[in-house]
Specification:
The protein is an all-alpha fold. Helices cover 58% and strands 0% of the residues. The mean pLDDT is 95. It binds adenosine-5'-diphosphate and nickel (II) ion.
């Protein structure tokens, strides 16, 4: 068994307890998209990318029961200290953190981050947002909610916005935060689809369509 296969087996058990917005299917889609982007970026290290994708949500504070799941799994894999460090740093650069993200300095960080964010866009992004909202008892939309920016990552995390608010707070901003050429291309198509979805939703609310 390769290191990636071993890691895949270990993380699969962890994601089995997360809701369908962050399950192993999310990981498999991000892997597929990361491979597609990496195919256009010849210097990318596929092993680091695959391990970072597999592990990027296991210690997510929204789901994780223990903060150390990522470290525990990493310690079980046969990796050099340097590889372990690269995987950890790549994962740290993925999260949006309410706009307080870290800078993506390596090509691996850029690819994993773009791939994860692409899964928040388009048809799949819409589906995931509503699955997440459902799991958190959120509203579909809330006209009274301010679609504002947050003063810190903590403030962003503390608020369970309505799903349509979340489109404005985060999802519609992602296309301009893409870092790879292929990621930008896919994000722009998926963004258009989401805008069309929101327009249709508004029109339906008023009985216009
Ligand atoms: P990150 O770690 O990059 O901030 P998250 O794990 O918080 O990303 O979010 C990933 C996905 O979960 C979002 O793209 C969206 O689909 C869903 N999500 C997160 N917060 C909300 C929310 N308040 N309403 C609806 N969906 C949400
Ligand atoms: Ni993710």
């Amino acid at each position: 068994m390769t290191t990636t296969e071993q890691c895949s087996k270990l993380v699969k058990e962890v994601y089995a307890s997360f809701d369908a917005s962050h399950d192993f299917e999310h990981i498999q889609r991000v892997l597929a998209t990361a491979h597609a982007i990496a195919a256009t970026e010849p210097t990318a290290n596929e092993k680091i990318i695959e391990l970072a994708v597999l592990l990027h949500d296991v210690s997510d504070a929204k789901y994780a029961t223990s903060k150390d799941i990522e470290a525990t799994i990493l310690a079980q894999l046969l990796l050099s200290d340097d590889e372990q460090q690269q995987v950890k740093e790549t994962i740290a650069a993925v999260s949006y953190r309410g706009g307080y993200e870290l800078e993506a300095t390596t090509i691996e960080m850029k690819i994993v981050r773009d791939a994860d964010r692409l899964d928040a866009l388009g048809a799949i992004g819409i589906a995931r947002a509503f699955i997440f909202g459902g799991a958190h008892g959120s509203l579909i939309y809330n006209d009274d909610e301010e679609m504002h920016t947050y003063e810190s990552e903590e403030a962003y995390r503390a608020k369970d916005s309505a799903v349509v608010t979340h489109f404005h707070e985060k999802l519609l901003k992602l296309k301009d935060l893409m870092t790879t050429a292929y990621g930008k291309k896919l994000a722009s198509q998926r963004h258009k689809f989401m805008v069309q979805f929101l327009q249709q939703l508004s029109a339906e609310r008023e009985g216009k369509i």
